[in-house]
Automatic annotation (TrEMBL), chains A, B:
Organism listed in the record: Gracilibacillus salinarum
Domain of life: Bacteria
Cofactor: Co(2+); Zn(2+); NAD(+)
E.C. numbers: 4.2.3.4
NCBIfam families assigned: aroB
Lineage, uppermost ranks: Bacteria, Bacillati, Bacillota, Bacilli, Bacillales
Descriptive protein name: 3-dehydroquinate synthase
Cofactor note: Binds 1 divalent metal cation per subunit. Can use either Co(2+) or Zn(2+).
Length: 358, 358
């Protein structure tokens, strides 16, 4: 078991990464709660909800709300339904919400917790690799048809309880999605960690020790950044490496058509190309492309309009005054946020999409 | 012009009370903004929106979103529509939302600001007496059919700009509603301020100097409490004097049937009766009743089920473990939060409603 403590402007919380946590979840709660709502999706529910409920119901009242799996549950309607559930289950300000699932559940349940009665405690219990990223740092949100995570809060959890035993049940697609964020943490932090990651073969069974190590390091990269800049005024933006185009692709295709990490993977390739062009950086485009390809990341896209993608990129929350801002790399471990003007972006994006054969 | 500075855990902001502020609103903004969304209701729009837009559009881009007047606009649908407006108007994280109107607009627009792109700046420009209370302290929210303000955030504004010239256009009903909160601030702070307030005759034209004085003192009471307890862990609850039953009456009758302050006025009478019963307090029930009555506050209610009211009171955010908590007074200026058990409450409420002749 490995524990990191994250300090935020308003609280501090532990991120625990280890085996067999869910079966002892009652012992990991930071305080006693009299009423708990577990929010989970249909897939995770069938795998872990019973365990969580069993180990908590000995000590407290527990309710479960299940939403459909997939990004489309991060909707205003689902959000409102969960608030209604919380009211019906008589949750009060001293109650707890547990987000049991991947990043979608953490974002959705966290946003419910952040706005139910102006904010109650919540705990992240991630069950995907991707959620090593999203569960740390206090960003919670739902989507709007016009863009991802446009509605949300900065609202840190009271704890992140990461049981890596849950990761063995992940489908390949989810492993790919999660590892894209691990790769991102490599790119923005240091070369050794990155080259270590790019050695892994995701098509084979993952070694728990390697997986756990990669995840802990990824969390450490993220924690160090969010502690310095919780509200994304400056360096937190670096965590969006690959996300400007990634989010645009996700929303342009319609959430769920491609996983978040798969979209970010393509976004990182593009961010490298832009970095080469604008900063004359020397970056391992081919090595990343090769690794993504051999691990079955989808690297060709259906035909997409460059103008539409750029409009999506402008709706990104990092965008200011309708200018697209991207995170680029001067070198590995040395990111920078830069505005890229429309004309330049159009040319680079057209060329990139041709390069991908889209 | 009178200025008070409020310090919160995350920022500090000025509350400016004075004449002719709207006509110089551009000079009162705490910083420059490139894109502003003014959120207002249909009634206030026809009176002041043009002025605000005129004085801002010389210096920046300004959009206006108008919602129907009345508490029913504090709905999930209206909230979502305003977020969609903000996206369509291309507001970014450096943009500003101005809440131009009464407490409903402040709550609604503030909640939009608190969750749009995880929070952007907003400024309160109150146009009612009631909003002297709601515009200070950073509580923002929308309603759920099951209860008032159940969905919201703690999110302080960047400034409160209170132009008392706007108060002269208020209908009597709104003056009554606002003065109930002024009276509340009297009850929970000190006897002299309270007896000063209870001398005013709301049925006659209000003297600007007296009005301004009452409002400034009310804001000072509120500011002192919220600075000590922003997130309502303890003494902030005292501001809910009269609100436990008040909120229950409002939602049981359906929002809009009775104003917030009118409901709180009845709630204060009840809180006094409960204080007399539980704490043997000696409080001016008759004096308050007399003042409310001579100022045309509605003091008889349509028949209401005591059980339904108590169920509503349990859904109040101050309630813990399904116990009703009320703010009572040991004496004027000396409030205390207490749980009241169901049986006792039923008896007291039945008696009180009979006393009112309901």
């Amino acid at each position: 078991m490995h524990k990191q403590t994250i300090k935020t402007s308003t609280n501090q919380y532990d991120v625990v990464v280890g085996k067999d946590i869910i079966n002892h979840i009652d012992q990991y709660l930071p305080r006693k709660y009299k009423n708990i709502l577990v929010i989970t999706d249909a897939e995770v529910h069938s795998l872990y909800a019973d365990k969580v409920v069993r180990h908590l119901s000995a000590v407290t009242k527990v309710h479960v709300s299940v939403v459909p799996a997939g990004e489309s549950s991060k909707s205003i309607n689902q959000y409102y339904q969960l608030l209604t559930d919380a009211i019906n289950y008589q949750l009060d300000r001293k109650s707890l919400i547990i987000a049991l699932g991947g990043g979608m559940i953490g974002d959705l349940a966290g946003f419910v917790a952040s706005t139910y009665m102006r904010g109650i405690d919540f705990i992240q219990v991630p069950t995907t690799i991707l959620a090593h990223d999203s569960s740390v740092g206090g960003k919670v949100a739902i989507n709007h048809p016009e863009g991802k995570n446009l509605i949300g809060s900065f609202y840190p959890p009271q704890a992140v309880l990461y049981d890596i035993d849950t990761l063995h049940s992940l489908p390949e697609k989810e492993i790919r999605s999660g590892y894209a964020e691990v790769v991102k943490h490599g790119f923005i932090s240091n070369e050794d960690y990155l080259s270590d990651i790019l050695k892994i073969d995701l098509t084979k069974a993952l070694q728990p020790q390697i997986l756990s190590d990669h995840i802990q390091k990824g969390i450490a990269v993220k924690a160090s950044i969010v502690e310095q800049d919780e509200k994304e005024s400056n360096i937190r933006k670096f965590l969006n490496f690959g996300h400007t185009l990634g989010h645009a692709i996700e929303s342009e295709l319609g959430y769920g058509r491609i996983t978040h990490g798969e979209a970010v993977a393509i976004g990182m390739l593009f961010a490298i190309r832009v970095s080469e062009d604008k900063l004359a950086s020397n970056l391992p485009f081919n090595e990343l492309f090769q690794w993504l390809s051999s691990n079955n990341y989808p690297l060709t896209l259906p035909p997409l309009s460059v103008d539409d993608l750029i409009n999506r990129m402008k709706k990104d929350k990092k965008s200011e005054n309708a200018q697209v801002q991207m995170v680029l790399l001067k070198e590995i471990g040395n990111p920078i946020a830069m505005n890229v003007d429309d004309g330049e972006l159009t040319g680079l994006l057209e060329k990139f999409l041709r390069e991908l054969g889209s």
